[in-house]
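A protein record in our archive is deliberately plain, so that people and models can read it alike. The tokens are whole numbers drawn from a learned vocabulary of local backbone shapes. For reference, a complete record is included directly beneath this paragraph.
>
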Amino acid sequence: MTQPSHPDDVTRARLIPPVPVAVAPMAGGPSTPELVAAVVGAGGGGFLAGGMRTAAQMRAQVDALRALLGAEGPDRWGVNLFVPDAVNTAIPDAARTEAARSARTAAVAAYRAGLTADGAAGLPTAADVVPDPDAERADFDALLTAAEEQAWPLVSFTFGLPAADVFARLAAAGIPAGATVTDATEARAALDHGAAFLVVQGHRAGGHRGTSDPAAEPTRAELPTVLAAVRDVVGTGAASAMPV
């Protein structure tokens, strides 16, 4: 394979595998280093799931994946990170006020209280569901530091859109970063923030979608329609180096 000559070529080489199969970042356990290594080793690509994991846990996952792939193993893989509310630029300011946080906390507590004892077993508390913004920022920064220090080949963001300086920070470390989008408006915002690639989800994406604003009503358009609209945003043909 010819060595990519500029960052866009690097991004495409890492994102577009010889075998057109990629492991989705399935948070909660399914996207193990072993699964990603097996698909990458077979010519595909994939993402480890950073959602619901600490920076220390992701460092261990990356080390495990690299051990399985070997020192000269392919770099057609990355890590997907959830975007916490505290750093999600798509959330309106009105939803960030202390009053709005208190209302969400009360709503979660009331919902939890209405469940049966069996139904509530093991559920997070209201404080868990509405975490402290400072803690969210610190945890997110720790994950970005892990990406830099371990030189993750790719990073993707889901359930929100980080600020442009986050994309610039990763780009400065040689890490192409992309975003999950569900319509053309989100795609345009991601491009404006410096996304190097886009992951497009339609309304049949496993029962949930990575909309940037969690309170927004997502489109009901089918995936081909959404893809066409996103393509209009990023452009098509040889002039566009944006992988979608």
In short: The two ends are 21 Å apart (CA to CA). Residues 1-6 have pLDDT under 50 and may be disordered.
